[in-house]
Design goal:
Length: 125
């Protein structure tokens, strides 16, 4: 499929798809006319890349992890190693710390909102 079709099927911009290719996250063949030609499984790969970006991983880390992951379900492939498990555990721990920080920030904001609402005679919330 051409880049426009892949973009349409995944909701990812053509610019992002080109970036993924530059970073070694996505591979496209070329037609005789020089156009990118993606296999059908590229849709699964792009969805996985998006999920990993959403989890806060950067492109370098994603490039390290992708060869150890299956496209369809993101599970481990035969290439998965103890290092992959350690890296993913470290990323999960980082996300857990970020969640804790966000919860604490929300609690502080809730206190400020409640105090400010009481002073202004406004309902909190």
């Amino acid at each position: 499929m051409r880049i426009g079709e892949l973009a349409g099927r995944t909701g990812v911009s053509e610019r992002s798809l080109r970036y993924y290719e530059e970073q070694g996250l996505l591979v496209a063949g070329r037609t005789p006319g020089g156009h990118r030609d993606y296999p059908d499984h590229a849709v699964d790969r792009v969805v996985l890349i998006q999920e990993l970006f959403a989890a806060g991983l950067h492109s370098t880390k994603i490039a390290e992890l992708l060869p150890c992951m299956r496209d369809a379900d993101g599970g481990p492939s035969a290439l998965a190693t103890p290092r992959l498990v350690a890296d993913l555990t470290a990323e999960r721990d980082r996300i857990d710390r970020m969640i804790g920080d966000l919860v604490r920030s929300r609690e502080v904001l809730d206190e400020v909102i409640e105090t400010a609402s009481g002073r202004a005679g406004l309902p909190a919330g």
